Amino acid sequence: MLIGGVLFAFLYPVIQTYIRPIGEFDAITLPALLGVSHWVVIAALAVGSFLLFCFFEKKGL
Q1: Is 18 contained in some domain?
Q2: 53 assigned to some structural domain
Q3: SS (H, E, C) 1-35
Q4: Is 10 within the bounds of a domain?
Q5: In a domain? residue 45
Q6: What is the rounded distance in angstroms from the CA atom of residue 27 to the CA atom of residue 8?
Q7: Which residue of 14, 25, 34, 49 shows the fewest CB atoms closer than 10 Å?
Q8: What's the pLDDT score for residue 3?
Q9: 20, 30 in Cβ contact below 8 A?
Q10: Which pLDDT does position 55 carry in this prediction?
Q11: pLDDT tens track for 2-61
């Protein structure tokens, strides 16, 4: 465990420089990705779930 701590202490500058910026993204949302209002996405999900439940009811699932 001591060796792991020392190894991490030596590698931390490399992690800060190269690896950490890879995961720094802004919040990516479905409405921003599609370029539409969030209400359009909510309505599409509501209609899709309604149709899915109708399909389940029809098939007896």
Answers
A1: no
A2: yes
A3: CHHHHHHHHHHHHHHHHHHHHHHCCCCCCHHHHHC
A4: no
A5: yes
A6: 29
A7: 25
A8: 94
A9: no
A10: 96
A11: 999 999 999 999 888 888 777 777 778 899 889 999 999 999 999 999 999 999 999 988
* Phi, psi dihedral angles at 60 (to 5 degrees): 75, 30
Length of the chain: 61
15, amino acid identity? I
Residue 51 confidence (pLDDT): 97
Distance, in Å, from the CA atom of 13 to the CA atom of 2, rounded to the nearest integer, reads 19
Domain span including residue 39? 25-61
Number of folded domains in the chain?
Answer: 1
- Supply the pTM of this predicted model: 0.55
- State the amino acid at position 6 in one-letter form: V
